[in-house]
Amino acid sequence: MNDFPLPVRAERSNPLARVFDELIDFCRARSMFMLHYCTGCGAIELPPAMTSRFDMERLGIQPMVTPRQADILLITGYVSIKTLKRVILTYEQMGSPKYVIGICSCTVNGGMYWQSYATAKKLNEYLPVDVYIAGCMPRPEAVIEGLRKLMGEIKAGRANSWERYFREYDRYLAAQQNLFGPNWQTPTDIIGEARDYQLYGPGTEGRHTELLQQHQVPLQPLRMTLHSDVEKSS
Amino acid sequence: MNGEVGRPISRLLADVDGARCERKGDRRVRIDATPENLPAVLELLKGRAGYLHLSAITCIDWMDDGEFELIYHLWSYEDRNLVSAHIRIPREPGVYLSVYDLFEPAGFFERDIHEMYGVFFEGSPDQEKFILTEWNGPPPMRKDFDAEGWVQGTFQWEDYRPEWLQEIEEKGGGIAIKPEQARANTRKIRGWKQ
């Protein structure tokens, strides 16, 4: 799995910069916005985790409705191949740093759907997963325990597996193409973003990104029409 | 009232050749029909007995018999009675008539069965892909489709014996039934060849 180990964050020589880094990490860990995207059955454990009984908000975890503003993508259960496409589209739209949590056994290895033709098995193959919370389904305490583990990792500056998606895009794309066919493409330009974030690594481009660039259709802006225009043209 | 429900149906079907009617419960009647007379049976049930609601069409793949069984479930709001009309069609070529002209919801059921079993319904309005829009393989609910083999050939698996688990096992914890054992059992039962 770890063909390209992530570079360790360079020690900052300026003590003030280190203070700022730690402050930023502390603030990130204390204000996590969780995307409201529920797959499978594990989502049923989230309402009690979010509302007054277990109250995730006291830890600074809030639900958020748009991927652009969210930090955490919770995959709550089995991901069908059809859903996985949407999950990847959503994940790519999220702003970095972003974290993926796989809840339930299905995200680890297919769970009780391990021999189903319709569900993807190993989520880590398609997206870099930070924390797995196993169980069928895990109770709200376990969900909060997993989120607290993620908070600790963020605070310690270790939760940077989102960088993997940019540094090793070719490997993730290989798994996606294996499942969705060679014509698979997303509207997001990951290679360009990797260069922009200075996360371009030896695994960013490869055989599979070449295949993507052969098939890639440049995105066209959608034509905006008013209802009357449609009537006139028809 | 309960005893009376089944009787009109058997009287109704007396004129149809080859249709047998059997009471299975207080509110359930089973009809064994043939592919030739099923449209007539449904027409009679709808027009003469008030069975207006087609709640589902079920398909069963009897691979060893070389047949598909189609079951039409009809509900009467007046009698509060469920009638299941069974027919068997040959597995090859797996073509049957649509009942869309009698019951409009049949369009959805037939499209679903076409997708999952590959049965083609002549006269059905739309036999395109329905739910499995991303699926290009054979119809997955057919018994001759080896889902487990397909899965083993398509997906990667997470390591079941990571290092941290071995540490736990040394202390006496870990997984009670090993995944290899569980899978070996299912293979033995289903005759799965490796």
How do the strands and helices of this protein lay out in sequence?
The complex is a heterodimer of chains A (234) and B (194).
Chain A lengths: L14 H16 L1 E4 L10 H5 L10 E4 L7 E5 L2 E2 H13 L5 E5 L1 H5 L9 E2 L10 E3 L6 H16 L6 H6 L1 H12 L9 H7 L10 H9 L11 H7 L1
Parallel strand pairs in A: 1-2, 1-3, 3-5, 5-7
Antiparallel strand pairs in A: 4-6
Helix pairs in contact in A: 1-5
Chain B lengths: L1 H11 L7 E6 L2 E5 L5 H12 L3 E10 L4 E10 L4 E10 L4 E3 L8 H12 L2 E3 L24 H8 L8 H8 L8 H12 L4
Structure notes:
The complex is a heterodimer of chains A (234) and B (194). With 234 residues, chain A is of the alpha/beta class. Chain A has a single domain (15-233), classed as Rossmann fold, CATH 3.40.50.12280. Chain A contains ten helices and seven strands. In chain A, helix 1 packs antiparallel against helix 5 (140-155). The longest helix of chain A has 16 residues, at 15-30. The model of chain A has no long low-confidence stretch (mean pLDDT 87). Chain B has 194 residues and is an alpha/beta fold. Chain B has two domains: 2-145, NADH:ubiquinone oxidoreductase Nqo5 subunit (Beta Polymerase, domain 2), CATH 3.30.460; 155-190, no CATH class. In chain B, the strands form two sheets. Chain B has a five-stranded mixed beta sheet. A two-stranded parallel ribbon of chain B has the order 6-7. The A-B interface holds A 81-82, 85, 108-110, 114-118, 120-122, 124-125, 175, 178-181 and B 132-137, 140, 145, 147-148, 150-151, 154-158, 160.
CATH superfamily of the largest domain in chain B: NADH:ubiquinone oxidoreductase Nqo5 subunit
Mean pLDDT of chain B: 85
Strand order of the largest sheet of chain B: 1-2-5-4-3
The H-and-E topology of chain B, N to C, reads as HEEHEEEEHEHHH
What's the gyration radius of chain B in Å?
A: 23 Å
The radius of gyration of chain A is: 20 Å
Number-wise, the strands of chain B total 7
Q: In percent terms, what proportion of residues of chain B is strand?
A: 15-25%
The stretches of 5 or more residues of chain A where confidence is low (pLDDT under 50) are none
Uncertain residue segments of chain B? none
Under CATH, the topology of chain A can be stated as Rossmann fold
Q: Could you describe the largest sheet of chain A, including whether it forms a barrel?
A: 5 strands, parallel
For the record, the CATH class of the largest domain in chain B is Alpha Beta
CATH architecture of chain A: 3-Layer(aba) Sandwich
Order of strands, widest sheet of chain A: 2-1-3-5-7
Pair of chains with the largest interface and how many residues each contributes: A-B, 21 and 18 residues
Number of β-strand runs of chain A: 7
Q: Which percent range fits the helix content of chain B?
A: 25-40%
Structural class by SSE content of chain A: alpha/beta
Instruction: Please work out how many helical segments of chain B DSSP would assign.
Output: 6
Can you tell me the CATH class of chain A? Alpha Beta
